[in-house]
Amino acid sequence: MNNPSPDRTPLLGIIGGMGTQATACFYEKLHALQKVTVEQDYINILLYSKPSVPDRTAFITGQSTESPLDSLISAARILESAGASCIAIPCVTSHYFYSDLSSSVCIPVINLLEETALAASERNVRKVCLLATNGTIKGKVFDSAFKKYNIEICTVTDDAQSCLMELIYNIKCGVPSANDLPEPVKEQAYNAGAEALVLGCTELCIALDGSSKVINTLDVLAEAALKRLS
Fold this sequence. Notes:
By secondary structure, the chain is α/β, with parallel strands linked by helices. The protein has helices spanning 20-33, 56-60, 69-81, 98-102, 112-122, 134-138, 143-148, 158-172, 183-191, 217-229, and strands at residues 11-16, 44-49, 86-88, 127-131, 152-154, 196-199, 214-216.
């Protein structure tokens, strides 16, 4: 008896759980962006929710010696072995490890940093205020991507950054949050001359204020993933 032919339908692999609410929001965005007439037209998705991945910010800022890289590579290889066509990671700070992670598998890993910088460039934005984790900022995770498009990056003051980090970790732990960013954060960003706010942490995408001046990285990732599988 012949073995059945393998399923050649494109499959999106997702390394999620960093955090879980951001991953759920990403899945909802993927669903909302797809216009189908029957449910069979939706893309196939394999989600590996792995909240056990060590804290990315803690490692990058030197508060922990436990690197997330091995855990991320393990998840990527599992998705690859399961037949994923490409991988999306709805966690910005994990992209600090993008080079090593993407080279560990033979399938594409969507580069959220590049996609976000491209999205800003397509809006003709020349200066952004990056709202992100301490790890993303200290690790200069976005710097080379935005430099490629000659886009300047500014950040908020330490006090405002502390407010952001509290909001991010509260969302990670399921603490209800207002559907908006703290006013001091927005005021500082626009007073610094930023033409757009980059929600450079996927938890912050849940606290979106809906402004056209906001670049939501979960929106960017969802659009890039669907384009990749189309």
